[in-house]
Amino acid sequence: MRAVPFAVPRTLRPSVIVRQLSAWMPVGILAILAVTALHGTIAAETHATWCALLAVAVTAGVHVTCGRRTILSVGIGTAVYVVLVNSL
Predict the structure, then answer these.
(1) Helices H, strands E: what count in the chain?
(2) Residues 55-66: pLDDT tens digits?
(3) Between vectors from CA 17 to CA 36 and to CA 37, what angle results, nearest 5°?
């Protein structure tokens, strides 16, 4: 039973659906994260809305320009948001 999760992806890897999911799933997760963060920010503090929107734009820009590295883009976007909120 322990080997099943590791054996199944090998058989599904050539599938077109699995390849498309592996390409689009990180984007979907980032979109859900952005919407959730923006909703919480807009509902809690309206003055931080522009900081959040700018941080999302930076996150998307870093994600596109740096080869779709999710951890890097989320980390830099979070850092930009924290710096903006604390400096304004």
Answers:
(1) 4, 0
(2) 889 998 999 999
(3) 5
